[in-house]
Design goal:
Strand content: 25-35%
Number of domains: 1
Number of helices: 3
Number of strands: 5
Order of helices and strands: HEEEEHEH
Largest sheet: 5 strands, antiparallel
Radius of gyration: 14 Å
Helix content: 10-25%
Structural class: alpha+beta
Oligomer: single chain
Length: 118
C-alpha cells in the first residue's frame, strides 16, 4: 500500500456521522479485506446505517494504521439514496457488527468511474 504523507507534521482528522460513536476502524478493515469491490485505489468503502439513514464511508489506510476516515456525500459520486438502500437490502452479511454493509457492484462501478476522472 502506498505511504501517505502528513502535511506540516499533522495528518487529517477523522470524520464520522454526527450522533454516532466513532467506528472500530481496524475491525471494519478486517471485514473489508476479503472483499475486492470495497477497495478502490488506496481507499476502502463501506456503508453505515443508523436511525434510518445510510451513509457512504471511506477509510484510507497507510503506514500500518488508519490514516483518514470520512463520511462522503454520495450524491457527489453520482450515487442515489435508493442505490444505497438497495445495497443495504442485498448485502451478503460479511460484517459481524450491525449497521455496517458492503457497497454494491453498482456503487463500486460509480466510485471507480469517478476516481478515474479525478
Amino acid at each position: 500500500m502506498p505511504a501517505i504523507q502528513e502535511m506540516n507534521g499533522m495528518g487529517p482528522l477523522p470524520r464520522f456521522m454526527p450522533d454516532m460513536p466513532e467506528p472500530d476502524y481496524d475491525r471494519i478493515l478486517e471485514h473489508l479485506a476479503g472483499s475486492p469491490i470495497s477497495r478502490i485505489g488506496a481507499s476502502f468503502f463501506y456503508l453505515r446505517t443508523q436511525g434510518g439513514r445510510v451513509a457512504l464511508c471511506r477509510i484510507v489506510h497507510g503506514g500500518g494504521k488508519i490514516f483518514f476516515h470520512e463520511t462522503m456525500d454520495h450524491r457527489l459520486q453520482g450515487i442515489t439514496d435508493s442505490e444505497l438502500e438497495e445495497a443495504v437490502r442485498n448485502d451478503p452479511g460479511i460484517f459481524a457488527e450491525p449497521g455496517y454493509y458492503l457497497i454494491s457492484p453498482l456503487i463500486e462501478s460509480k466510485l471507480r468511474l469517478h476516481a478515474a476522472f479525478r
